[in-house]
């Protein structure tokens, strides 16, 4: 037995690939009313991959540690999967992340994994595709000549991940939410977990996909001054992408019947929700830009007497240009909610000192005092970030 284990470990090491990164970020908050004038942390990721015959093992772990506040720390396995190719398809089992759809900062059909903002509330700006919580799942894929299908079963539940209350990356709204006790789903079991389906094909010059999802809503609804509770979520959606010269045109839409919402005026209610996103990306040489506009329609539902009609409009604009043989990159991102007037702008400069060491510097500027960004207008900040790749 011991000999067999040793042979297995030796085989894994022979076909293994290790990678890692480590970084340190320090923020200086301008406001005199901020909890801390500075907030610093170190963070890192370790990844291990091995291929044994037809089976691939992938393990990834992440963590962070607050320097001024040692209690602000966490570490977790980001991914633990076994996958294999079977004929014209593939099969995966383990703790995994799935990113669907064409949107970047606004989740329309990308609903399987909850957002993970524990290490930094705005981490989705830095790497929105990895700023999600992994879930245990089974995933099967089939690839035909002109279409493909992905079927996922999710026997797992995790709520939206928010930063610790009273931390340098929190605000008054988050502090209040984090003080509430969470109620796990009463009927959570293997029979009542989640499932998702994606079908994709190419029609002419268009990449088209359709999506179905039935599972848990990770954005736990505030039920009372004391509790948060999870509810079921249903979604059907579609996306389309087309390249035209130096532009990429993107659109996606999703319909959520009987979505449980927490509205400021009506409290908890059930309404049908329709999300629609249109976007365009442009790139030429060492410059690129991306514009996204999204509408969330909260439509009156026959199942609720308190349902209301409401439209929420949001948008993002991102621009980037590189110089000095791509060693220096300037970028600017603006997010804005046209209903509440809340938004933010991040101006950042990236300098590649070496192939393995990058330096970032910039500023996060906020405006508006409503919604999830309420309170951040008092936390305008400048930051410096060092990142080393092993």
Structure described in brief:
Helix content is 6%, strand content 59%. It is mainly β. The protein has one domain: Porin (Beta Barrel), CATH 2.40.160.
Mind explaining what this structure looks like?
The structure is a single chain. With about 400 residues, the chain is mainly beta. The chain has one domain (about 30-390): Porin (Beta Barrel). About 5% of the residues lie in helices and about 60% in strands. The protein has helices spanning about 1-15, 125, 170-180, and strands at about 15-30, 40-50, 55-65, 75-85, 90-95, 135-145, 145-155, 180-185, 195-205, 205-220, 225-245, 245-265, 265-285, 285-300, 310-325, 330-335, 345-350, 355-365, 380-390. The protein has an 18-stranded antiparallel barrel. Mean pLDDT is about 85; it is low at about 5-10.
């Amino acid at each position: 037995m011991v000999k067999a284990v040793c042979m297995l470990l030796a085989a894994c090491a022979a076909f293994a690939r290790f990678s890692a990164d480590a970084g340190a970020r320090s923020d200086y908050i301008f406001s005199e009313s901020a909890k801390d004038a500075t907030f610093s942390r170190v963070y890192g990721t370790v990844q291990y991959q091995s291929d044994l015959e037809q089976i691939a093992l992938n393990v990834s772990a992440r963590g962070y540690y607050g320097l001024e506040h040692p209690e602000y720390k966490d570490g977790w396995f980001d991914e633990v999967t076994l996958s294999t190719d079977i004929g014209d398809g593939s099969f995966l089992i383990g703790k995994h992340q799935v990113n669907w759809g064409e949107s970047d900062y606004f989740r329309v059909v990308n609903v399987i994994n909850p957002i993970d903002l524990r290490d930094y509330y705005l981490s989705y700006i830095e790497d929105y595709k990895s700023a999600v919580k992994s879930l245990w799942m089974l995933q099967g894929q089939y690839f035909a000549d002109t279409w493909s299908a992905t079927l996922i079963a999710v026997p797992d539940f995790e709520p939206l991940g928010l930063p610790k209350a009273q931390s340098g990356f929190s605000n008054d709204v988050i502090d209040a939410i984090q003080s509430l006790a969470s109620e796990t789903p009463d009927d959570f079991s293997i029979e009542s977990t989640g499932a998702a389906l994606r079908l994709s094909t190419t029609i002419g010059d268009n990449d088209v996909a359709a999506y179905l999802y039935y599972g848990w809503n990770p954005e736990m609804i505030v039920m009372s001054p004391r509790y948060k509770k999870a509810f079921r979520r249903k979604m059907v959606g579609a996306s389309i992408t087309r390249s035209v010269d130096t532009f990429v045109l993107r659109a996606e839409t999703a319909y959520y019947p009987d979505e449980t919402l927490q509205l400021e005026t009506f409290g908890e209610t059930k309404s049908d929700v329709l999300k629609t996103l249109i976007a365009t990306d442009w790139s030429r040489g060492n410059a690129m830009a991306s514009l996204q506009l999204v509408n969330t329609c909260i439509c009156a539902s026959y199942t609720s007497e308190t349902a209301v009609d409401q439209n929420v409009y949001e948008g993002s604009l991102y621009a980037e240009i590189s110089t000095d043989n791509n060693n220096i990159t300037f970028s600017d991102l603006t997010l804005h909610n046209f209903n509440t007037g809340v938004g933010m702008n991040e101006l950042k400069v990236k300098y590649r000192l070496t192939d393995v060491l990058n330096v970032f510097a910039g500023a996060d500027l906020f405006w508006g005092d409503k919604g999830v960004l309420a309170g951040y207008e008092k936390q305008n900040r400048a930051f410096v970030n060092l990142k080393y790749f092993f």
